[in-house]
Amino acid sequence: MSSDDPVIYLDHAATTPVDPDVFRAMAPYFTAGFGNPSSIYQVGQAARSALDDARAKISRVLGCHPSEIVFTSGATESNNLALKGVAWAARLRSPDGPPPHIVTTAIEHHAVLHAAEALERQGFTVSYVGSDAQGVVDPGEVAGAIRPETCLIAVMYANNEVGSIQPVAEICRAGRANGIPVHTDAVQAAGALSLNVDGIGVDLLALSAHKFYGPKGVGLLYVRKGTPIWFQQHGGGQESGRRGGTENVPLIVGMAEALIRADANREHANALARAMRDQLWARIVGEISQVTLNGPDLDGPRLPNNLNVSLPGLQGETALLSLDMAGVAASAGSACTTGNSEPSHVLRAMGLSEDACRASLRFTVGRLNTAEQIDDAADALVETVNRMALLSGAR
Ligand SMILES: Cc1ncc(COP(=O)(O)O)c(C=O)c1O
Question: pLDDT band at residue 312, thresholds of 50, 70 and 90?
């Protein structure tokens, strides 16, 4: 994808195109550098050194020791590993004690929520803390949900639907004061917020490379040294015995290259995103009546690339199809629940009615968008809304 692509892509929270420099860095490891990092001969050792180099680069962005990074297939696996790994470590430590308890939130991605529900089916207990009307969790409520048997707190860094940034550092202080590890799903924060694990204070952190211009199918879990966790994937002893399976060297190389670029470019990218996102909002609010903004104020605790709106009387999914015909790619709710027409659990947790949820659209801008594209997308949206209103007789 390039800036002169006919598609106006405004769905960067769903995925991003691979940065061409990242693609170039990965390419040799599919061909000449194909070795298995566990092999002792030169081709294998070259792959091993690429893997070590990638781990070192990522550890500099996270401000952690390289050995604290476990490569995974993406954030779904990382989140599952964090929740199930810490819960089962607690269970195995005291099999006769009360079932270990997890505190999480109602606005997490399904990779966390469904992992928590699976643990409940295995006898663990979970508290789901709600959010305020802006999609922000109260750290006091999280601390208030802690019990003597709590083994983990899991709160996302930034929400994928409304871009709300959670007070994770404050939650980590509560976790630390109670001796409870804190996990954060930082998928949407990469490239926008600092990922320094000591700055945030987290013990576990999940990332997925395709959200920051890296390849799909690769991610990581940061695990602070000393965090009790039961690693579940047994095999050839890779990742220091923490995740068996031959490492996907090209994808891991790509993730490292993408992460250092995204992190170094954060300020610039945020300024560009904010300008385009605000331009889109100005057009929408100026030309469409009764529109409401979902999530924090644009200058509040919100990712700079996220705009989530409800357009009364409009069916989000129908509007998406109409926008698609006009060459604009956006989202109604989370892309990861495509095919599921249930109203968004995040918007519901924020107190929106079912109708307002179904009338919601999410636009997430990115690196390759231009001001001209934003204007064209706004034109297409205004036209869609007017046409749908005419058809329904509402406007
Ligand atoms: C906040 C959040 N967590 C986890 C995931 C899952 O990532 P993946 O599908 O790459 O495993 C996503 C994907 O949309 C996400 O937005």
Answer: confident
* Residues found in the chain: 395
Closest atom of ligand 1 to CA, residue 108: 1
**Angle at alpha carbon of residue 53, lines to 47 and 57, rounded to 5°:** 145
Number of CB atoms found within 10 A of residue 301's CB = 16
- Of 206, 242, 188, nearest to 62 by C-alpha is 206
Q: From ligand 1's centre to the CA of 74, what distance in Å? A: 8
Query: Is 218 a residue whose pLDDT tops 70?
Result: yes
98, amino acid identity: P
Mean of the per-residue pLDDT values of the chain:
95
Residue of the CA atom closest to atom 16 of ligand 1: 160
Q: Which of 110-119, 235-244, 336-345 has the lowest mean pLDDT?
A: 336-345
Say yes or no: CB of residue 344 within 6 Å of ligand 1: no
- Among 155, 204, 205, 211, residue to substitute to test ligand 1 (most atoms within 8 Å of Cβ): 211
Nearest to 165 by CA among 306, 363, 302: 302
Detail the DSSP E strand segments found in the chain.
8-9, 69-72, 101-105, 125-129, 150-154, 182-185, 204-208, 219-223, 292-293, 306-310, 328-329, 360-364
pLDDT at 333: 62
Does residue 357 have an active-site annotation? Answer: no
Q: Ligand 1 centre and the CA of 201: distance in Å?
A: 22
Gap from CA of 287 to ligand 1 centroid (Å): 33
CA 76 and chain centroid, separation: 10
pLDDT, residue 128, reads: 98
- Pairing type for strands 8-9 and 328-329 reads parallel
| Residue 325 token pair | 């015909």
Per-residue model confidence (pLDDT) at position 2: 58
